[in-house]
Amino acid sequence: MISEYKLIYIFLILLFSLSSCREESATYSSFNGFTQGTTYSMIFEDKENITAEELRSQVEKKLRDFDMSLSIYEDSSIVSKINRNETVVPDSFFTAVFIKAKSINILTEGAFDITVSPFVKAWGFGPDAVRNFREPVRDSLLMLVGMEKVDLKDGMLIKTDPRVSLDFNAIAQGFSVDVICNFFDRLNINSYLVEIGGEVRVKGDKNGTRWRIGIDRPEENNMIPGDDLQAIINMKNKSLATSGNYRKFYVEDGVKYSHTIDPKTGYPARNTLLSATILADDCATADAVATACMVIGKDAAIEFLNRNPEFEGFLVYSDESGNFRTWTSESLKKYISESN
């Protein structure tokens, strides 16, 4: 259940029948199911060497193995054991995601941080979390947050303090998409869409047409993915992730607390940014950068995206009157259509 407190909701718009084909067009197969406490959907160009059922079986095994490495909702996963300070050797999944997380932490100047786990729990998010945040304990919890407090040495995770704990929720689901896509690549599948919990990566196009991905309007009452779309993005050979605060939050004493925690302050991020959609080459990066944008807010997110043109972004925010406004990276504008 990697995405329990991460909000990424994207509706896949499929304009063609998955089972039929036109003359001189490739045929496609699909399958879907449940994983990591969410759903997945996969569409791929038919290959003679494998059926959809065979592919589903192999995909689900890889996703189970991935969960047993990085899910904090699995008591016997590698990350859960490391958080309990048990002696365990990180596997290739853990190592790859940890290295990626470190690099994005540096890139975002600390806005993305997998050591924010103590605050996530204190604010009442995540498995077995109890809402017990109190201002007097904030400074002591901040002492446990920071990527400089963890490192991989000789294949083992080293902590500067045994109380430091890790939470990969803001990157692991995107990375699981990359794992499946890399598997499809090894099978020489040249056209596919892989979606897990709303995180998407596509390769090629579908019979000459770019894949069309819908972005939900970030309203609190918009609970059904795809029911009310903010925009549609046309994609080819890209990954996409959207993070938002409009579905996972709680209200206490009239104050709304979102699931996105600022690792520098220990408080839930409070700004005008409602959702951040990021396009990148790999889905793990898109996932983590989208979260970082939610932490830093609209203006800083725009500055970040302008400084890093390897990413494309679509931001939805509220103005002073509470009306929806959007910002789109210049290079993305020709591939996006917004709803009124």
Structure description:
The protein is an alpha+beta fold and 340 residues long. 29% of the residues lie in helices and 26% in strands. The chain has eight helices and 16 strands. It has helices at 52-70, 78-83, 92-107, 117-122, 135-142, 169-186, 283-296, 298-307; strands spanning 10-13, 28-35, 38-45, 150-153, 156-159, 192-196, 199-203, 211-216, 229-235, 239-244, 249-252, 255-258, 273-280, 312-318, 324-328, 336-338. An eight-stranded antiparallel sheet has the order 2-3-6-7-10-13-14-15. A four-stranded antiparallel sheet has the order 1-8-9-16, with no helix packed on it. Helix 1 packs antiparallel against helix 6, helix 3 (92-107) packs across helix 7 and helix 7 packs across helix 8. The model is unreliable at 1-11, 13-23 and 247-257 (pLDDT under 50).
Rounded to an integer in angstroms, the radius of gyration calculated over CA atoms is 20 Å
- The sequence of SSEs as H and E is EEEHHHHHEEHEEEEEEEEHHEEE
Class from secondary-structure proportions: alpha+beta
Report the uncertain regions: 1-11, 13-23, 247-257
Shape: globular
First and last CA, distance: 34 Å
Spatially, the strands of the biggest sheet line up as 2-3-6-7-10-13-14-15
Instruction: Give the percentage of residues in beta strands.
Output: 25-35%
Count every helix, treating DSSP H or I runs of 4 or more residues as helices: 8
Helicity, as a percent range: 25-40%
User: What's the count of strands?
Assistant: 16
Largest sheet: 8 strands, antiparallel
Average pLDDT for all residues: 86
